[in-house]
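User: Teach me something about this protein's shape.
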Amino acid sequence: MFEIESITWEMSIIGLSLTLFTVFNITAKSYVHKTDILLCGWLFVLNIPLLHTLLTHFDVHSAPFNMLTNPMLNLLHGPILYFYVRTLISDKSLSSKSDLLHLLPFAIMYPLFMLMAHPKPMVPLPNSADNKVGPIGEHGITSLFEPVFVHFGLINGLIFVIYSILTISLLINHQRKISELFSQNDSRISLSWVYALPGTFALMVIINVINEEVLNPASQVSAHTLHMLSFLIISTVLCFFGVKQKPVFYFRGLSATKEDTLQKAAPVDLPQQDNCKEDNSPLSKEAIQDIINKMNTYMQTQKPFLEPEFTVYALADELNIPRRMLSLVLSSGLSTNFYQYVNEFRVNEVKALLESQNGPQTTILDLAFQAGFKSKSSFNSLFKQHCNQTPTQYRKMLITKAASQA
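Assistant: First, the predicted structure itself:
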């Protein structure tokens, strides 16, 4: 147990050093987005318990610093997680009054905590098992809130769970739309790495329950050590992925102003709509087919799919057709989505490159990258989906066919 406890301050050094390095890299960017500011602010709040631990290890104490960085700051983790993900997937600002309501628990409990008496030096997290460590209301209204602070750990955990659920809901809705907007689906676009944040919290709760309820006292690790470990893990995930994460709408290839203009504009040179509609589409069959012909011609002649970051917004910009109309045409006219539509062209491009070769001079993966793919796994999956065989099997078939014709 001593060996485990002795590394707590060392975990603090690792977390603080990693955070300083990450913040330096973020602020050194040529353009700092509001998501970067949120990330830096969140890392600062996450590292306060680590800083407390480090200062305590070196027997450095400051009552004003402890008071300003009191445990009520942990109430910010849930809202910041939610705001951070929301600003990554949407360019809407965080200035509405409804956004301020998310900070209400912190705005109430932070000053209230400072007004109450503290019989012992504060620690990074209140210990619900010992109410003498927490604040005590001397008289009046502050005494009514003493039970709230005694159970602060439970309350803080519930708040973070609520915001984790809200965040996961945002991610699920966002990931449902990816196939309509992007021709790639990596972690920077899908934000799949964000699941590690509430996942870490859930895992540490389970470990803490096992530690306190299952293990015998001689084998237990202190709750403080587990708290420091959770802060370190979450900080590490944010530092590793957050420093290179851009807002998803940066990958669109089309500004919001231009997109709004196209949405309001009527499609150019489209046949007049009549009563013959495709399913429930507001476009006639002729209009749908005309747009399909324009898309196919542009894709075959210009080959924009060779650009890995090609999006439906870029296609809408080139064809001067609203993005929503393109998605509607792909769905009702071709029974597909943008992701499948573009990657079918990429698969056909790889097939053409393979057929133009007489032997395995170039690796299949190199050809896939030339065709616009960014991931080996997604290429293999899409190729087999379209061709009913793996890329290697397809190449062997071509070689066998060429040998038999020689």
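Now, about its shape. The chain has 20 helices and no strands. The longest helix spans residues 152-181. If you'd like, I can walk through any region in more detail.
User: That's plenty for now, thanks!
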